[in-house]
Amino acid sequence: MNRIVEIRTYTLKPGSTELFHRIMQEQSLPMLRAAGTDVVAARPSMHAPDSYLLIRAYQSLAQRGRSQDDFYTSPAWLQGPREAVMACIEHYTTAVIEADDALIGSLRQAPVPA
């Protein structure tokens, strides 16, 4: 069965990639995973020093919408890393596609140990 994959690319403010990556790994990703989000990959992009990639998988478009609404309005996010994350971002672009488990598996990044 196909799932919905969201590919988000961030253009970060010059020099903020290391800070953004640290906040993502230490705060944002654990929060997303605790909220039930399947984080496929989150890492700096290879093509530009101030570019970052976040890939998430969902069961459906509706589940994606509910999940993101719940997460991005939660006190944990709003009172947690949101301000620091947003301060690093110049802009971002999102693409949403269907993908099977084989494609998702090939994109999957091994989790960083806690």
From TrEMBL:
Pfam families: NIPSNAP. Signal peptide: none annotated. It comes from the Bacteria. Residues 5-79 form the NIPSNAP domain. This is NIPSNAP protein.
